[in-house]
Amino acid sequence: MSRRPLRLLASASVTALVLVSLFLAIGRERAQGPGRTTWEEWDDVSRAPDDGKPARTPNAWFFIERAWPRMEIPREAWRTAQLQARALAEVSTSRTAWQLRGPTNVGGRITDLAVDPRDANVAFAATAEGGVMRTRDGGQSWDLVFDDQVALAVGAIALDPQAPDVVYAGTGEVNPGGGSVAYGGVGVLRSSDGGDSWEPLGLEETGAIGRLVIDPNDGDRIFAAAMGHLWTPGGDRGVYRTLDGGATWERVLYVNDTTGCVDLIMRPDNPQVLLAAMWQRIRTPERYDYGGAGCAIWRSLDGGDTWQPVGGGLPAPGANSGRIGLTLCAAQPTRLYAVYADRTGYFAGLYRSDDGGGAWTRTSDGALSDVFASYGWWFGNVRGHPVNPNTVFVLGLDFYRTTNGGASWSEVSGGMHVDHHGLAFGSGASPVIYEGNDGGVYRSTNGGTVWTMLPDQ
């Protein structure tokens, strides 16, 4: 298995490069079927308020060339291209050997992280376009354990708490992009051998998975936060549950065909209690609309069978609502935090609950006013310390920490690359912390005060 510096994780494999070529070619297929037949009809599905920026007409033209006449790129053709790419890679007769020539001073976007509770030197990084990476030496070297999969965009990574060698990857990136592109996925995959091999577990049409949550007492009981396809409305959005390890799934929470689930938490002391952050968003080549009245937190007290929207001091859902992030303290799971962005992406508040989500109050979050810098839809995450309920990190353009439950905040990025997406803790009272952003993975051994870019050799 190849081992390369993490800073190259966004570099596409040969399979991915072939896939891109095939994907661009499928637009020449005149797929037939129902749908919108003019650009005007398609674009009117979601029209964001005028932002004063010039029209991105080439984007629309590029898209229409590949999507006409349905005004959506046919999923069946995309899937065929993926399988063709894999087949071509398997039968390639090329003997050319590639050698690393850099660059080694830049990284790629990390979307999620997971740390083995038995050994903090073992961690997994999910990437926006580079699959899943694994380290067994604290980040000094990384294995590319996902390169033979048909989709290399990964939005979520999770380990079974009872059996950490069982790893789950939710494919498709939920961070939607403004000028950049976010790629969809092919559902959930599982590895039973610590990442060496993978098998598909379904949910192929969910577009992108924002979070995977596993019952700490029952590894077969898993919840997936599905955001759906970025470019088209559709019904494959919401919260999905499996009770048999992924053999079958059922959707247990659905709002509408443009609202998906971007974040999900489960109380470890009572796995019947879950909270889901629902996010209304859709994009067109010309415009994007990342908010609306569908944005809200929902809670289930019966294991996902029924759900109710959460109020109790949280912002009421409305036309200006945007992305929401959720977290809790594992050692004191009645302590919850929720971070809000508005529809444009500006910071809209950090809220705290001390009773498991019934009542909420806004923290003293004035220092966070610029944390999302008008595009909070790009990150919009919050992470609570697993032992200390008063220590919380807000992940945005910059990186902030409170150690007093939100009474005050400090910017603690310490020179890290901007645009922060992922944070994961090891075990113990003073756990090692891994952090992921648009520049790679960093590590802290002192609670998040000092960070080291990995690998640091």
- What's the total number of strands? 31
Widest β-sheet, arrangement of strands: 1-5-4-3-2
Q: What's the multimeric state?
A: single chain
Structural class: mainly beta
Give the averaged pLDDT, no decimals. Answer: 87
Low-confidence stretches: 1-37, 44-49
Biggest β-sheet: count, sense, barrel?
Answer: 5 strands, antiparallel
Brief description of this entry?
By secondary structure, the chain is mainly β. 10% of the residues lie in helices and 33% in strands.
Task: Report what the structure shows.
- The protein has helices at residues 14-25, 39-43, 57-67, 75-91, and strands at residues 3-4, 110-115, 123-127, 132-135, 142-144, 154-159, 167-171, 188-191, 199-200, 209-215, 218-226, 238-242, 250-253, 259-266, 274-280, 282-283, 288-289, 296-300, 308-309, 321-329, 332-342, 347-353, 361-362, 381-384, 392-395, 399-402, 410-411, 420-425, 433-437, 440-444, 452-453.
- The protein is mainly β and 457 residues long.
- Helix 1 packs antiparallel against helix 4.
- The two termini are 21 Å apart.
